[in-house]
Amino acid sequence: xxxxxxxxxxxxxxxxxxxxxxxxxxxxxxxxxxxxxxxxxxxxxxxxxxxxxxxxxxxxxxxxxxxxxxxxxxxxxxxxxxxxxxxxxxxxxxxxxxxxxxxxxxxxxxxxxxxxxxxxxxxxxxxxxxxxxxxxxxxxxxxxxxxxxxxxxxxxxxxxxxxxxxxxxxxxxxxxxxxxxxxxxxxxxxxxxxxxxxxxxx
Length: 202
Hints:
Blueprint: H1 2-14, H2 30-51, H3 61-86, H4 111-136, H5 151-185, H6 190-201
Helix pairs in contact: 2-3, 2-4, 3-6, 4-5, 5-6
């Protein structure tokens, strides 16, 4: 009898998971999973944008470095978020759906348009992160009303995503406004201004 009890305990232990709420299915994390996939997609979009400024015809190492940095950062953050999901006992899936905007053709864009596009992407990611944080940080005594509540995940989003995204958006918007101001001051000297700005980004 003792031996049977030990086997039962052993198999119960094997059935244990790291899910913080037993009845919280993976669908409760759908928003976070989609958000993670979007990071991976945007990483490729940033990479394609950066590649345009490392050519013989358009040699802008500063812009290339900035956009390549955004690409690497998005990819690394996406992998980090997959690991964060794995801590909760759920597998990540890479299903791409209509909720994620596909990569648009960004060939032959100017330096200003490239940075404006990057600022737009980062702002969109910031807004979505704020919405996901709201979903997972809403607690209630009634479980059915707070089935998406995850204090750890909401803390992760606040500390590792929201603060970083806010800073990135502010920096990119500042770059865009500065380039617009340089063009407005004197369109004739704008190419030289862009060259100097590229030196600054390096």
